[in-house]
Amino acid sequence: MKNLLLACVLISFSATAGCGGDSGGSNIAGGPACSVDPCGGDITGTWNATEMCVDKSVLMAAFVEGTMGACPQAKLTTVSYPLTGSFAFNTDSTYALSLTLSASIGVSIPSSCINVATCADLTGNFTSDPDVQSATCTGTSTCTCTITQMPDSSSETGTYSVSGTNLLTTATGSATTDTIGYCVKGTTLTFREPGTVSTASGLFAIVATK
Fold first, then answer.
1. What span, in angstroms and rounded, lies between the C-alpha atoms of 133 and 149?
2. Within a domain: residue 182?
3. Counting C-beta atoms within 10 Å of the first and last residue's C-beta, which end of the chain has fewer, N or C?
């Protein structure tokens, strides 16, 4: 399951990057549950995905390097990373998940960083990417862009077990077991590695509620 969640994030970074609302002014985008360390707990039941928490600096670096080339003056202005779907952990040690990830960002890009004539041309560059659902760039010396990613859906079934504060999952047809930290507090479930961010994707945590 961990690898599937990372893949979901990486797919969304092919042309854009985004996340939930800011958390406490830190560089981690998302709500209070994003900062919850793994604590274990009873994970059985069905949980509805609510948000994905990511490191904004990783997103900005991915955007600048992968999409725009070297442009340190570019800035993320708004971010939205809705995650919908569910995680079901059954009493017979089987699980199923079905998730849909969307991404929408606002970014400010100085025209000196782009090799097109106008901000409208930059819009065309973004919309030519099949992974982009829509894009709008306006302005003159600085292009203010809003980019919306095509929704990406993923699903997985398999078996799971719990070891302390870790969830161990083996997807159907796979011989590999994935491990991810988790914490159940009341009706909130947070998946998170203790004190770490995936440097490849910026993934910090996944939050779901009952």
1. 5
2. yes
3. C
- Range from 31-35, 105-109, 191-195 that averages highest in pLDDT: 105-109
**Domain count along the chain:** 1
Which CATH number fits the domain that encloses residue 55?
Answer: 2.40.128
Domain presence at residue 140: no
DSSP state at residue 44: -
**3-class SS of residue 83:** strand
Number of CB atoms found within 10 A of residue 108's CB = 14
Enclosing domain of residue 22: 2-71+78-104+152-209
* Six-digit token string for 104: 């929408």
6: exposed, middle or buried (Cβ count in 10 Å: 0-12, 13-18, 19+): middle
Cα 96 from chain centroid? 19
Separation CA 7–CA 46 (nearest Å): 22
Task: Give the model's pLDDT for residue 29.
Answer: 65
Using an 8 Å Cβ cutoff, are 210 and 46 in contact? yes
Report the predicted TM-score, pTM, of the whole model to 2 decimal places.
0.74
